[in-house]
Write a structure and sequence with these properties.
4 helices, mainly alpha
């Protein structure tokens, strides 16, 4: 028996292994998407969240993580570089988003009900 080691055969084998890797890594995601499409995806059990850190606390935690990763050679000085008010803006957006979804859940709405129905009033205001 002879084996075809032509460039075309090698590319096909590489493509096949790439496809298998994608399927194996994203199987759960594909299953969730299918359940969502079929209307079978249920709300996960919720739990009360904590509070978001302040900008200073988040900056300190990022600095600590950066130092730890750099010590292991897993990050460079470019990791977690501050960008103007980016961290503060991110934390503000998270705070706003969580307060909006809390209002939806308190009124018995689901995560995506607000967008499916186009009813911004389910969250107590506009988007």
């Amino acid at each position: 028996m002879t084996h075809d080691h032509s460039p075309t055969s090698d590319l096909a084998t590489e493509a096949d292994s790439g496809l298998l890797e994608i399927i194996s890594r994203y199987t759960q995601t594909f299953l969730w998407l299918q359940r969502y499409d079929e209307g079978l995806l249920t709300e996960p059990a919720g739990q009360s969240g904590g509070t978001l850190p302040s900008e200073a606390e988040a900056s300190a935690a990022l600095a600590q993580l950066k130092a730890s990763l750099m010590a292991r050679g897993e990050a460079t000085a470019l990791f977690a570089q501050p960008r103007r008010d980016g961290l503060g803006a991110l934390l503000g957006n998270l705070e706003f988003s969580t307060s909006q979804w809390t209002a939806v859940w308190q009124e018995g709405g689901t995560c995506d009900q607000r967008y499916r129905t186009g009813r911004a009033d389910l969250a107590g205001g506009g988007v």
